[in-house]
Amino acid sequence: MKKDYFIVLVSLMLLSIIGVIAVQAYWIKTSWNNKEEAFSLAVNQVLESVSLEVQNRELNDYILAYERLIDSVGKPDDSNFTDVFLFLPEENTTSLSTFFAYGILQEDYNIDGSSLDPRFAQLANLSDYKNVNTTAIISNDVFGRENNMITSVSKLKSVERRNPFEVAKYRSIFMQYMANLPIHKRVSTQEILLLLNKGLNDKNIKTPFEFGVYNNKLATRVKLNSYSEEDKGPRYATPILVDDIGKSPYELVVFFPKKENFVLSSLIGVAGLSIILTLFIVLVSFSALYQIIQQKKIAVMKTDFINNMSHEFKTPIATIGLAIDSILNVKTINKPKKIQEYTKMIKEENNRMLKQVEDVLRISQLERGTLQIEKKEININEVIRNAISHVSLIIKSRNGKIDINLNSDLNIIYGNINHLTNVFVNILDNAIKYSTNSPLIKINSFIDKKIIMITIKDNGIGMDLNSQKLIFQKFYRVQTGNIHDIKGHGLGLTYVKKIIQVHQGQINLKSKKGIGTTFEISIPLI
Question: How would residue 124 be classed by pLDDT, with cut points 50, 70 and 90?
Answer without folding.
Answer: low
